Amino acid sequence: MNQAVRFHDQHVVEAQTSFRDAVIAGLSATPKSLSPKFFYDRRGSLLFESICQQPEYYLTRTEECILVDASDEIAALVGPDSLLVELGSGASRKIRLLLEAMRPSRYLGIDISRDFLLESTRRLAADYPWLEVHAAWADFSRRLALPDGIAGQRTVAFFPGSSIGNFEPPAAQAFLARLRQVLPDGSGVLIGVDLVKDRAVLEAAYNDAAGVTAAFNLNLLERLHRELGVEVEPENFDHLAYYNEAESRIEMHLVSRCRQTLRLEEGHFALEEGERLHTENSCKYSIAGFQALAKRAGYEPTAVWTDPRHLFSVHYLSI
Ligand code: AVJ
């Protein structure tokens, strides 16, 4: 019985220092922006779990159905005794849908939210005693590497939830190409990708009636306060999410309700009434469009699964 999580504190320093630097760079830019990766402090990770349960947020539910239905086919493609690496493992919930069918020998969860990562991988190790569980606290958008000692094994990189949508297409392609470099021969990528669809369905998913997505967006301001001491009232901002059809993406912004100044030690940043802080892009693809991107990144799109309404897709990309 093997229930300890092997923890790799890989890129701790980078993960910690980059928040302040990124905030200053983002507030100095025109238009002002902050990377969506900073949503995921502990509170943000919990709010995201709650978003996934909102009736309007079809992504999670749909992907889970696809994974359950396809789990045997996925397992057949991957083969047993692989290393299963989950990028942005969060609550490590989706992976449970695949473990029994896939029977990997090792699991590595990588996440930017340290406490959350530890809690969820500990639960995973307790629930699957046959699985060797590893956890790496890392910002994989900055640097991608597998910890020493487990690199080299045939790997499936699992990147669920359409998190790839946070990269704009050229960056998504570059990220997949970099990922390919760290995967040994015979490996593959199992990736969830949200599909282009009716504007009303998309916009409802990012403007849930319970206001959880708004709270998730506004939590970024609370994080500015908690971690950087910025005096900022979340009530002075509105949540804004809409579909930018020309760019095939949902955009999220925080809109300043008044003239106000965000004060950091390094500088003061004035916001006009109505000025936006761009907090997220969530890019949507057609199946063919994503397969073409994967090919340009050096992969062979081997299989794709979708739901009857074509809301979401899961792709298996071979090296
Ligand atoms: C985790 C990036 C896939 O874009 O749908 C959910 C994040 N933002 N609601 C998404 C998110 C607002 C989510 N991803």
Automatic annotation (TrEMBL):
<dbReference type="InterPro" id="IPR029063">
    <property type="entry name" value="SAM-dependent_MTases_sf"/>
</dbReference>
<protein>
    <recommendedName>
        <fullName>Histidine-specific methyltransferase SAM-dependent domain-containing protein</fullName>
    </recommendedName>
</protein>
<dbReference type="InterPro" id="IPR017804">
    <property type="entry name" value="MeTrfase_EgtD-like"/>
</dbReference>
<dbReference type="InterPro" id="IPR051128">
    <property type="entry name" value="EgtD_Methyltrsf_superfamily"/>
</dbReference>
<feature type="domain" description="Histidine-specific methyltransferase SAM-dependent">
    <location>
        <begin position="19"/>
        <end position="317"/>
    </location>
</feature>
<dbReference type="Pfam" id="PF10017">
    <property type="entry name" value="Methyltransf_33"/>
</dbReference>
<keyword id="KW-0489">Methyltransferase</keyword>
<dbReference type="InterPro" id="IPR035094">
    <property type="entry name" value="EgtD"/>
</dbReference>
<keyword id="KW-0808">Transferase</keyword>
<dbReference type="GO" id="GO:0032259">
    <property type="term" value="P:methylation"/>
</dbReference>
<dbReference type="GO" id="GO:0008168">
    <property type="term" value="F:methyltransferase activity"/>
</dbReference>
<dbReference type="InterPro" id="IPR019257">
    <property type="entry name" value="MeTrfase_dom"/>
</dbReference>
